[in-house]
Amino acid sequence: MLGGLVFVFLSAATATGMIVRGRLPDHHLSSESKDAIRLATAVVGTLSALALGLLIASAKSTYDNAEVEMRTAAARVLLLDRVMAQYGPETDKARHLLRELIQKRLSRGWSAETTDDASGSALGEYQDIEAVQGDLRSLSPRDSVQRSLQTRALDVSGMVAETHWLLVESGKEGLPWAFLAVLVCWLSLLFATFGLQAPANPTVLSILLVCALSVAGAIFLISDMANPYVGLIRVSDAPLQSAIERLGKP
Fold first, then answer.
1. What is the pLDDT of residues 94-150, one digit of tens each?
2. What is the DSSP string of 38-88?
3. Please, what sign has the CA dihedral across residues 9, 12, 17, 20?
4. Are 48 and 186 within 8 A, CB to CB?
5. Of 11, 116, 126, 193, which is least surrounded by CB within 10 A?
6. What is the pTM (predicted TM-score) of this model?
7. How far apart are CA 74 and CA 202, in angstroms?
8. DSSP designation for 233
9. 113 vs 5, 31, 116, 167, 171, CA distance in Å?
10. Strands, DSSP E only, in the chain?
């Protein structure tokens, strides 16, 4: 969606430049005037390239962090299940709740908008992990080994809950929209100057449209990677799929 809008803006800017070109007096487009335009737009072009590079780096960092969070969460869930399995059959209910939590996560997605929403009789995810923690606290260890396992299980479940709340708190960060808006304005100015100076023939028009499409594609990639749990470029849920196959085993 965002990439398409950027493509429309850049194409419109190019067309505007070509329309203005046909209405300007000849001396406005003399070689000296074109040199001055190129020098001025070089500054904007450099700034645009830097801004686009920063946005790409930021989006890639967000995507990589989300991928690490997914693997870490799956590993912690598996660790919690194994610790509870070592405790004994008293944790069967808590292990079942943990498996239901992962099944819900797979069916509803991994985003702040879905994990806390109640759906029919299904509770929000934070309530599920709190129920697991409640069952763990209600255990009555018979010896020091079970007491140690209970403490460890509570620690790991706390880390699972922490991962959830970190997702909730960071879920609305997204792209720096003001920065992106300024970047699109700079790019539109550049493409308007391209249209102002370029002759209106099919070859030039094709190249300009391909360039506009390339820039719009870069913006699309940035917006998609900045929201790593939705869209075309999303973090794989393979770690969770692998985890759920191992949950509940003796």
1. 899 888 888 887 776 655 555 555 444 445 566 778 888 898 999 999 999 999 999
2. HHHHHHHHHHHHHHHHHHHHHHHHHHHHHHHHHHHHHHHHHHHHHHHHHH-
3. negative
4. yes
5. 126
6. 0.75
7. 54
8. S
9. 25, 56, 7, 10, 8
10. none
